[in-house]
Design brief:
CATH class: Mainly Beta
Number of helices: 1
Mean pLDDT: 86
Distance between the termini: 26 Å
Number of domains: 1
Strand content: over 45%
Shape: globular
Number of strands: 17
Low-confidence stretches: 3-32
Length: 267
């Protein structure tokens, strides 16, 4: 269930309801309709979610549908395995929304992996231009949360995809996110971003402090993958594979933009 404190996202208008129902934006890029769901992921709705079968340069693994297993009363179990696949020596797991969203609240209840070198991610992403809002837990420090924003300028289709305005922040959680499920949420408004853990506001940013706020539709993703970056995630502990993360639910209350088949995207 969507939860957590709400605050004014001025200068934009928030629907005047007791429970926050997203943002009614007066921009030409604003969405025409809203979406509200709380998906327990005991099975995967193919009209809502896409299970990925691609990869990207920083990923030591290849995303495979077989690495996403939905279980009754559990949710989606994501795994990273040592598995020679030609282009990669490991397999990984990723789920992406078929819809794109423009502003709203995005929440997951998940239990992260603790395997060094593996990243558990929950984030919004787009290409052309690349923009991204991240929640990541790295296995070498599963007691910390990495929040990040990538911003590139341009309108829909502009080929600015190098993420020149990444701005990571590491936050001490005060608990180990691999030991039990916790709720992680992103509230994305036109002038402000807020991150919550178990309904507690842990980080916020306003426009240009330190990056612009993404203002184009993005799709929602949750994944588990082995990173090439030892600086970020640590050296991959192969002897501890397979690694798993459990995604018990994903809840969205947001403005709905256009559907997307994710061709050419590689978050």
């Amino acid at each position: 269930m969507l939860s957590g404190p709400r605050r004014d996202l001025s200068p934009w208008v928030i629907e005047p309801r007791p429970v926050w129902r997203g943002i009614r934006a007066g921009s030409p890029t604003s969405a025409a309709a809203g979406v509200l769901f709380d998906d327990r992921l005991e099975s995967l709705d193919s009209e809502r979610w896409l299970v990925r079968d691609d990869t990207f340069p920083g990923n030591l693994g290849l995303f495979r549908p077989a690495n996403v297993e939905c279980r009754e009363a559990v949710g989606a179990v994501l795994s990273v395995r040592r598995e020679p696949l030609g282009v990669r020596d490991f397999s990984a797991a990723s789920i992406s929304s078929r819809d794109r969203f423009l502003f709203g609240r995005f929440e997951t209840t998940l239990q992260a992996s603790k395997v060094p070198g593996v990243i558990t991610g929950f984030f919004l992403h787009r290409d052309s231009p690349r923009q991204e809002i991240d929640v990541e837990i790295v296995g070498k420090r599963s007691d910390c949360l990495l929040v990040n924003v990538f911003y590139n300028p341009g309108t829909e289709g502009a080929r600015f995809d190098y993420g020149y305005r990444g701005a990571p922040t590491i936050i001490d959680l005060g608990f180990d996110a691999s030991e039990m499920p916790h709720r992680f949420a992103i509230e994305w408004g036109p002038g402000e971003l807020r991150w919550f853990v178990d309904d507690r506001l842990i980080h916020e940013r306003v426009n240009w402090d330190p990056t612009p706020i993404p203002r184009l539709p993005m799709s929602l993703h949750v994944n588990l993958w082995p990173s090439r970056s030892r600086e970020l995630a640590g050296r991959l502990a192969r002897r501890h594979l397979p690694a798993t993360a459990v995604v018990k639910s994903i809840a969205v209350e947001a403005n709905l933009a256009t559907s997307l088949n994710h061709a050419g995207e590689h978050p």
